[in-house]
TrEMBL record:
It comes from Sphaeroforma arctica JP610. This is D-3-phosphoglycerate dehydrogenase. Gene3D superfamilies: 3.30.70.260, D-3-phosphoglycerate dehydrogenase, domain 3, NAD(P)-binding Rossmann-like Domain. Residues 480-552 form the ACT domain. It catalyses: (2R)-3-phosphoglycerate + NAD(+) = 3-phosphooxypyruvate + NADH + H(+). GO terms for molecular function: NAD binding; phosphoglycerate dehydrogenase activity. The keyword Membrane does not apply. It holds the Pfam family ACT. It comes from the Eukaryota.
């Protein structure tokens, strides 16, 4: 168990040192420091420096300013990338998953701020407030150029009816604006509960006086509002983008504004940020019908406190084995590090280690023909919903002997793609009559046989309870000798003698017998690796049927 610098035990993920690479409220540092975690807080770290220093850290906390590329992830050994905010399009999620890095965000912490900014932008856009302010400062009292439109009685089309989209709808309804919207995962009846009329995207385009986007930037939403969409929009529509640059095609928007198709755009986000180097973004920012802010949606003291506290608390919780709230790339791992589930994860990993060492023709413990599939059954109320996580743990053990890369719960399934057999995982209520509440069972299926191992957790520690037909109570730890023998007196003494002769100190012994009691299976835990010579000497003992050494360190 790792110990944090404040002396408190870390029972979950080990996080000793964190880098913050964007401006974040100081409460984040305080919460991490109070938990004994060292923090380097910087406002900005250039990419080449980030790649150089990242291996010094267990976790990285970012906002939208830092791009967490595959190169950054490969250069480090990060356990966590924390996003103090919502959008994770600046983080290479696939690369993070492959690197075994969990990505956590703080959805919800800046919802209200982003929604309020959206509404402020729409109102400002409709009444030319920024442009008029600018003219007045320049000494021009231009009332004609500030002729706007009311919100009252108009229709707003909200694309993306998640947290922010719904908060925008609520605020627009207070202005007597009709709220319609599109979201592929929100059924009409659910949208209706928020007084939003859900319809298909083309209908939203056709009916909206105002459009506002609240989706993440994904391959599906990139360019969602482009030339084709603008052709379907009402002439003179106005558009707000407080979601992500790139969801509106900036070139198409510029044309729509110049052609009078679009009467105004309020932009908080840009295809490239900062946008000054992009000629198209710069033209948009300078356009008289455009108002723009430099990605300020979440920039309120209130939101920044919320996201800073949330991300720090999530990381501290992860180090203590708590739920991984906001896990973006591995949502099923939410409870994998909890004190109740962790020993089962350890058990499944040990079972994977066993499987890795009996693969490929081990007639004694597994099979002498090619494996076709492995099935894991998570039986019992505590673990039945964790079958996928336990499968990843099994894979972690399995791959640890087969791959040089650091395989863990988050990335195991990537490596498993190269195996030439399937691994299935099923969670069930426990129906067998074993006296345990939760049992993990792993079956190895080959053309001619099925071999099964079963394990449980006793007093927080993994135990093997059956190996094929043998009932046993072995601890799957360290250096383990398995041997089977006919039920004749004196075999154990002789095996112990061979161990002594080979300097193998035995510290635990468990024996099981087959139902017909003719054959015994014994498990010896020894303190050091077992040599081939020792194995040969045990195999030569009269009555010994088979012997196998497994390294379960
Ligand atoms: N400007 C700023 O400072 C901020 C920007 N954001 C941006 O806003 C986005 C939305 O945030 P939340 O509402 O909290 O996220 P959310 O996850 O609650 O909602 C996003 C919604 O978009 C929907 N969606 C996904 N693909 C879609 C598509 N093709 N068409 C229509 N809907 C689609 C999803 O089903 C989901 O309901 C974030 O991903 C982030 O990029 C968030 C906070 C601050
Ligand atoms: O949370 C989000 O998605 C945002 O866009 C806010 O970005 P920021 O944290 O202000 O860089």
């Amino acid at each position: 168990m790792a110990v944090a610098t404040n002396g408190e035990p870390q029972q979950g993920m080990e996080v000793r040192k964190v880098l913050i690479s964007d401006p974040i409220n100081p409460l984040c540092v305080k919460i991490l420091n109070d938990a004994g975690i060292e923090v380097d807080a910087r406002d900005k770290v250039p990419m080449d420096e980030l790649v150089k220093i990242i291996s010094d850290y267990d976790a990285l906390i970012v906002r939208s300013g830092t791009t967490v590329t595959a190169e950054v992830l490969a250069a480090g050994n990060l356990k966590i990338v924390g996003r103090a905010g919502t959008g994770v399009d600046n983080i290479d999620l696939d690369a993070a998953t492959k690197a075994g890095t969990i990505v956590l965000n703080t959805p919800g912490g800046n919802t209200v701020s982003a929604a309020e900014h959206t509404c402020a932008m729409l109102q400002s856009l409709c009444r030319f407030i920024p442009q008029s302010n600018e003219k007045l400062r320049a000494g021009k009292f231009d009332r004609k150029g500030g002729m706007g439109v009311e919100l009252h009685g108009k229709t707003i089309g909200i694309i993306g009816l998640g947290r922010i989209g719904r908060e925008v709808a609520k605020r627009m309804q207070a202005f007597d604006v009709k709220t319609i919207g599109y979201d592929p995962i929100m059924p009409k009846n659910v949208a209706a509960k928020f007084n939003i009329e859900a319809m298909d995207l083309d209908a939203v385009f056709a009916q909206s006086d105002f459009l506002t986007i609240h989706t993440p930037l994904t391959p599906q939403t990139k360019g969602l509002l482009g030339e084709d969409a603008f052709k379907k929009c009402k002439k003179g529509f106005r558009v707000v983008n407080c979601a992500r640059g790139g969801i509106i095609d900036e070139e198409a928007l510029l044309i729509a504004l110049n052609d009078g198709v679009c009467a105004g755009a309020a932009l908080d986000v840009f295809q490239e940020e900062p946008p000054m180097d992009s000629p198209i973004s710069s033209k948009l920012i300078a356009h008289p019908l455009v108002i723009a802010t430099p990605h300020l949606g979440a920039s309120t003291k209130d939101a920044q406190v919320k996201v800073a506290v949330e991300i720090a608390e999530s990381i501290v919780r992860a180090t203590r084995g708590g739920a991984l709230v906001g896990a973006v790339n591995a949502p099923k791992l939410v409870n994998a590090f909890s004190p109740e589930i962790k020993p089962y994860v350890a058990l499944a990993t040990k079972m994977g280690l066993i499987v890795s060492q009996v693969l490929g023709g081990d007639a004694f413990l597994a099979t002498n023909s090619t494996i076709q599939s492995i099935s894991l059954f998570a039986k019992g109320d505590l673990i039945k919903d964790m079958a996928d996580v336990l499968k990843n743990a099994l894979l972690t053990g399995l791959m640890s002997k087969l791959s040089d890369d650091p395989v863990n719960l988050i990335n195991a399934h990537h490596y498993a793609k190269d195996l030439d057999f399937q691994i299935n995982a099923t969670g069930t209520d426990k129906i067998d009559d074993l006296p345990y509440k939760n049992v993990l069972s792993v079956s190895i299926d080959s053309a001619d046989s099925t071999h099964t191992y079963e394990g449980v957790v006793v007093a927080g520690a993994p135990h093997l309870i059956t190996i094929n037909n043998f009932e046993i109570g072995a601890k799957p730890n360290g250096h383990v000798l398995f041997y089977s023998n006919y039920n004749t007196p004196g075999v154990l003494g002789k095996v112990a003698g061979v161990c002594g002769a080979h300097n193998l100190n035995i510290f635990d012994f468990n024996m099981g017998e087959e139902n017909n009691k003719k054959v015994h299976m014994s498990v010896l835990n020894v303190e050091s690796p077992v040599t081939q010579e020792a194995l040969k000497d045990i195999q030569a003992i009269d009555g010994v049927l088979g012997v196998r050494y497994l390294d379960l360190e």
